[in-house]
Write a structure and sequence with these properties.
By secondary structure, the chain is an alpha/beta fold. Helices cover 59% and strands 11% of the residues. It has 3 domains: 49 residues, no CATH class; 105 residues, Response regulator (Rossmann fold); 59 residues, Orthogonal Bundle (Arc Repressor Mutant, subunit A), CATH 1.10.10.10. Strands 2-1-3-4-5 form a 5-stranded parallel β-sheet, sandwiched between helices. The longest helix is centred in the last third of the chain and has 46 residues. It is elongated.
């Protein structure tokens, strides 16, 4: 992921070369996970990796790292030439999606570009798994323009589905659009997850307030004040204290 590689970039002053940024970043996260154990929660990982705000490589004049999947060597070469012309780095070129997940794990490309006559069930299943575990922008060039095929590809995680549009002069623009759409979609997913979490926490707090009002004869304002004071005293979140209240013997 970009953020992982950017974490490695912070150590350039220690002699770390550009081609090793991703490896260094991954190693640092692995070390933190082993040292902190259970304390290395998803929230901590987000704080270490997800909240980095360093310039992207393409913003600094470099290209993104692209993994190509194409069963046709001739068309794969057209793709590679177009990508190189656009200033992007082709990390690898696969002829089938069988090794897709393993290759992504090893090379950490920024974008996946797939060229196919029509996306097979095998290709779509691999993309679904990738989208769940290590989401990335996916550009798919295909000859099949059937609406249902396009819908299935988009549901599997394809950011841009281009029918009969494999033109090396258009590749850069298509990838730029795919990356922008992917980032917008990821932001919306994060906002939805955050809103869902807040709603869930609010329900827990409301339930805890109700229990305090019933068992201690408090009004709503006093019950909420008690929850807030307990959270501050114990250095817990309001939702955590509310959960303790709900789980406590009445």
């Amino acid at each position: 992921m970009l953020a992982v590689r950017q974490l490695g970039e912070r150590h350039a002053g220690y002699g770390v070369e550009r081609r090793h940024y991703e490896l260094v970043g991954t190693s640092l996260i692995w070390t933190l996970e082993k040292c902190l154990g259970e304390a290395f929660t998803p929230e901590v990982k987000v704080a270490v990796v997800g909240n980095l705000r360093l310039p992207r490589r393409d913003d600094a004049g470099g290209g993104v790292r692209v993994l190509v999947v194409d069963e046709s060597p001739e068309r794969a070469e057209i793709l590679r030439e177009g990508l190189r012309r656009a200033g992007h780095e082709v990390t690898a070129s696969l002829t089938s999606p069988v090794a897709l997940l393993k290759t992504i794990d090893q090379l950490q490309p920024d974008v996946i570009v797939i060229d196919t006559e029509s996306p097979s069930r095998d290709v779509l299943e691999h993309l679904v798994v990738m989208s769940q575990h290590t989401p990335r922008p996916v550009v798919m060039f295909a000859s099949d323009g059937a609406p249902e095929t396009i819908r299935e590809a988009v549901r599997a995680g394809v950011s841009a589905y281009v029918v009969d549009g494999l033109d090396k002069d258009r590749i850069k623009g298509i990838i730029d659009v795919a990356v922008a759409r992917f980032e917008d979609f990821q932001r919306l997913r994060e906002e939805l997850a955050d809103a869902t979490l807040k709603l869930s926490e609010r329900k827990v707090v409301e339930r805890a307030k109700g229990l305090l009002m019933k068992t201690h004869g408090l009004d709503e304002e006093a019950a909420f004040a008690l929850l807030r004071k307990t959270a501050m005293d114990r250095k817990l979140t309001l939702a955590e204290v509310a959960q303790l209240v709900i789980g406590a013997p009445q």
